[in-house]
Amino acid sequence: MPRRRPVLSPGVSEPLKIDIWSDVACPWCYIGKRRLEAALERMTERDGVRPDVSIEYHSFELSPDTPVDFEGTATEFLAGHKGIPLAQAQQMQDQVTQLAAAEGVEFRTDRVRHTKTLRAHELLHLAKQHGRQYEMKERLLAAYFTEGRHVGHATDLADLAAEVGLDRDEVLTALGSGRFADDVAADMAQARAYGINGVPFYVLDGRYGISGAQDPAVFVQAIDEAIRTRETEPADV
Amino acid sequence: MSDDARKPAGTSPGVVPGRPATAAAPSSAVPVLAMLADDGAACADGVCAVPDPASR
Lengths: 237, 56
Description:
The complex is a heterodimer of chains A (237) and B (56).
Chain A: E1 7-9, E2 12-13, E3 16-22, H1 27-47, E4 53-59, H2 74-82, H3 86-102, H4 118-129, H5 133-145, H6 154-163, H7 168-177, H8 181-194, E5 201-204, E6 208-211, H9 216-232
Parallel strand pairs in A: 3-4
Antiparallel strand pairs in A: 1-2, 3-5, 5-6
Helix pairs in contact in A: 1-3, 1-9, 2-3, 4-5, 5-6, 6-7
Chain B: H1 3-6, E1 34-35
Region (Disordered) (chain B): 1-26
């Protein structure tokens, strides 16, 4: 029998859960992150209080066949992956770079060191355990897109993790043992079950989907809608 | 998965009123998601191009 979502105390309910499937080597995921943040800021200014949301990132490897030590630029990878001329791939990269700049994000495609992101995803699961996942995600995106840092090797990832307050040795041990590999695989399985084939992908309260890096206004409307309906409709469980 | 599989009937551009999914889910633990907006720009299969407005 359906039940209503639990009310912790009068007027206080659980935060709206926003689950985000995302990759590190994903420019739209970075742009989408900024746009969602802008949406939450707009709602804060409108309502005088920050919307009560809980954000969790989930793993989605866009190119799992990428070698950790890919030799070449991200543009060369794109050209080879799609079988298109290098100039066309560069044009595609430039377009996304311009859109990122409009969101205040600097993409340096000349610096990007394309790599397999499995270990970065494992690190994000470790960071989640320590309540630092959001900070870790931001650090990884900036490292990859702006700073030209390598995000495929355990030692490089441990350095970045230490910058957000995680224990470097713990990171090295976890990545060396593959402790979080099953968590990454579970996220990927969940994505497949939802039918997600591109990222970023947002799931609100486990039942509403938003695909892609939407305009902040769309996020605002969607979050409003999810909050409104959760207050009037029974939960699915 | 096709758009039709993910979007509730009647989905229109922009945000539309969401509704709980009632169609059969892929498994008992995974509900079908009600899409709250048309697809936005995304990366798929390693490609992250700017979407063509004509294809939206």
